[in-house]
Design brief:
- The chain is α+β, with helices and mostly antiparallel strands.
- 38% of the residues lie in helices and 20% in strands.
- It has 16 helices and 16 strands.
- An 8-stranded mixed beta sheet has the order 1-5-6-11-10-9-7-8. A 5-stranded mixed beta sheet has the order 13-12-14-15-16, with helices on both faces.
- The two termini are 51 Å apart.
- Bound molecules: histidyl-adenosine monophosphate.
Length: 434
């Protein structure tokens, strides 16, 4: 039996990894435009970090964490999200006291959730996200949403649905939870086992139940907007009006409650259906929080953030053809003709790479026909054919593999030759621009 990957995990190989890297780089560039700095935090945290922040009322903490005892009998957890770890790091290093506020950080990497694998749902997946912590302001909430939308815009997404809702302040949420409890208590006998638990732990989660019959019941439930305090309502409209000013379209979604415990005030998600009709689920989710640092032993400080699911972004982009132009192909494929030129070819390959051009070679004197096939597989733009007689004259044949034109070039002037060649069609070789 050949070995297989763990259920719910997946390999990202070669071209696919190019796509992920491209998404991460666009994300990173936009985050930097907004003044964010990268945080790299451990994949492993003490389980307590998530229990205290992500929340014991959330499905993630209740049943989806990869938690185990290490050899020293400490309970540790493979992170199911970044927000808790970022808050832990800020508390641990007292950044709230030493850094200019708000602290703006971005991050990306693998996260782990023991969920049922299905379309767009993995057990090891990748997130890229930001947190903006230390200033309580509807404007920073709005700025965070702008950032998310700008990343998606730069990646070429069209037809996005930004869903937004307000969960209000603590008092609003308490009033709402009580109202939901009263409403669902009357229907709970007809609802799923999970909802029984949710009614006790966090009745707002019932609104997120995927069971059809339960969704029907949830439709008649009280609405959050009727329980918002005056202040939360004002704050929500302040965020919305900034989005209006920035021409960001959104849709207010009463049933958007989010799956993690720490949220308050504004929450949001972005959805997109790919051209193939596939729905991979929310591309990103995020929102405002007030008690996270405090829950981890720090001061009371507000924050706002979101995380993209990279698999979902990648899958929609792939279906929509937004990743088609990524492949740049190899600049030069060096083709040795005969054993006697192998050493010189090796040096030539190395010299070309040092000039900053991507270069490869079979490093063996195989048939020229096979070499052209290999070059085509690598989508090489040029072949540099190195023969013994030519080498003695200090020249080689440079073949444009697209135009099928060949010319002799002097190896002494190789760098100038290549610079003028690749300088000429910048649109294809933007990585050599400077
Ligand atoms: P989340 O909504 O749990 O939020 O996850 C964010 C994104 O991760 C989702 O929108 C989705 O794209 C992706 N995702 C979640 N679960 C899976 C899965 N099983 N397979 C593939 N992709 C998945 C958070 O994690 C919060 N920490 C976001 C945040 C940051 N809120 C404030 N700051």
């Amino acid at each position: 039996m050949p070995a297989i990957a763990v259920k719910g995990t997946h390999d990202i190989l070669g071209k696919e990894a190019d796509g992920y890297r491209y998404i991460e780089r666009v994300f990173e560039a936009v985050a930097q435009l907004y003044g964010y700095q990268e945080f790299r935090i451990p994949t492993l945290e003490y389980t307590d970090v998530f229990n205290r922040s992500t929340g014991e009322g959330s499905d993630v903490v209740r049943k989806e964490m990869y938690t185990f005892l290490d050899k020293g009998n400490r309970s540790v957890t493979m992170r199911p999200e970044f927000t808790a770890g970022v808050a832990r790091a800020i508390v641990e290093h007292k950044l709230y006291a030493t850094e200019d506020l708000p602290i703006k950080c971005f991050y990306y990497g693998p996260v782990f959730r023991y969920e049922r694998p299905q379309l767009g749902r993995y057990r090891q997946f990748h997130q890229a996200g930001v947190e903006c912590i230390g200033v309580n302001s509807a404007r920073f909430d709005a700025e965070c949403i702008c950032l998310a939308m700008q990343v998606l815009g730069m990646l070429g997404f069209k037809g996005l649905h930004l869903k937004i809702n307000s969960l209000g302040d603590e008092a609003s949420r308490k009033a709402y939870r009580d109202a939901l409890k009263a409403y669902f208590a009357e229907h709970i006998d007809d609802m799923c086992a999970d909802c029984h638990e949710r009614l006790e732990l966090n009745p707002m989660r019932i609104l997120d139940c995927k069971v059809e019959h339960d969704q029907e019941i949830a439709k008649g439930a009280p609405k959050m907007k009727d329980y918002l305090s005056e202040e939360s309502e004002k704050r929500f409209y302040q965020t919305l009006s900034i989005l209006n000013d920035m021409d960001i379209e959104y849709e207010i979604d009463d049933s958007l409650v989010r799956g993690l415990d720490y949220y308050g005030e504004v929450v949001f998600e972005v959805h997109a259906i790919s051209k193939t009709g596939a729905d991979y689920g929310a591309l990103l989710g995020g929102g405002h929080y007030d008690g996270l640092l405090e829950a981890l032993g720090g001061p009371q400080m507000a924050g706002v953030g979101f995380a993209f699911g990279l698999e979902r972004i990648y899958n929609v982009m792939k279906d929509d053809g937004l990743l088609d132009d990524l492949e740049e192909g190899l600049d030069i494929y060096v083709m040795p003709v005969g054993e006697s030129v192998l050493d010189e070819s090796f040096e030539l390959v190395s010299a070309i790479r040092n000039m900053g051009y991507t270069c490869d070679s079979p490093l063996a004197a195989i048939k020229l026909g096979s070499q052209f096939k290999k070059a085509a597989k690598k989508k090489a733009h040029y072949a540099l054919i190195v023969g013994e007689e030519e080498l003695q004259r200090g020249v080689a044949q440079l073949k444009d593999l697209e135009k099928q034109e060949q010319k002799e070039i002097s190896l002494e002037n190789l760098e100038e030759e290549l610079d003028s060649l690749f300088g000429e069609d910048e649109h294809e070789h933007h990585h050599h621009e400077e």
